[in-house]
Amino acid sequence: MSGVLLITGGASGIGAETARRAARRGYKVAINYRSRDAQAMGVAADIAAQDGEAVAIPGDMANEADIVRLFNETERVFGRITHLVNSAGIGGGGMRVEAFDAAALHKLFAVNVVGLMLCCREAARRMSTKHGGKGGAIVNVSSMAGTIGGRPGASHYAASKAAVDSFTMGFAKDVAAEGIRVNSLRPGMVLTEMTEDRLKDDAFRTGIESTIAMGRVGRAEEIADAILWLLSNEASFISGARVDASGGGFVFGAR
Ligand SMILES: NC(=O)c1ccc[n+]([C@@H]2O[C@H](COP(=O)([O-])OP(=O)(O)OC[C@H]3O[C@@H](n4cnc5c(N)ncnc54)[C@H](OP(=O)(O)O)[C@@H]3O)[C@@H](O)[C@H]2O)c1
User: Fold this and answer.
1) Cβ 194 under 6 angstroms from ligand 1
2) What is the mean pLDDT of residues 31-39?
3) Which of 13, 47, 110, 197 has the least C-beta neighbours within 10 A?
């Protein structure tokens, strides 16, 4: 597969695994990162060592100017962006409603929702045939949390991911006849930098795994492969879909 793929939050976890696998498939990969410069450079160096092409580009996906700069910089290095994966996201910390803090909620939605929507804006301006583009494919990394309201203390995170799913469906309809496919990919619990500290607690991990039909958490590469399939021409008639990668889904009442 050839093309120019921009991945937000690409220095770690699902984004980094997607970058590595995409490069092996022939994409030129732009890896956006916020604070993890060494990790981002490491992923890009690994890709280059395997004769792939990658560049690491800093930028805070909660900042509009950074987002615009990221897209311009990616195009300056690799040319026209054909594919986008919005993987940048934060959990927002465990918090019951009584403890909600406006600043924390604004930050959560600024990254998980508004930033993602602005990335989609930048992609649409470049990919849409209506604006002289040649089409493209986008995957927004959502979460199974959006469908069930999240695990205890995660209602704010769940709400942000439900917004991603809903936005993805509407955006997909807007641009479907303009050559752009947009889908959301909803992982269940996956072992990444976002979850590894909590999953080190055996009791926590056992409790989580008892709620997953396959009885285990997911691996980043399993999510990356699903993302890459959605980006590929094998998914050419799929747009506006919400694809679950969750080990068979939640088994309610198991805990
Ligand atoms: N792991 C799971 O169980 C799971 C389940 C469902 C959905 N997801 C979603 O999957 C996506 C990837 O998460 P992950 O599991 O791979 O965890 P991760 O390794 O923590 O990846 C998230 C990445 O997003 C970056 N990021 C956060 N805020 C950013 C910002 N403002 N600008 C640019 N980058 C930013 C982080 O970098 P910094 O640390 O430098 O900010 C980090 O590299 C997220 O959207 C997450 O919500 C994860």
Assistant:
1) yes
2) 98
3) 197
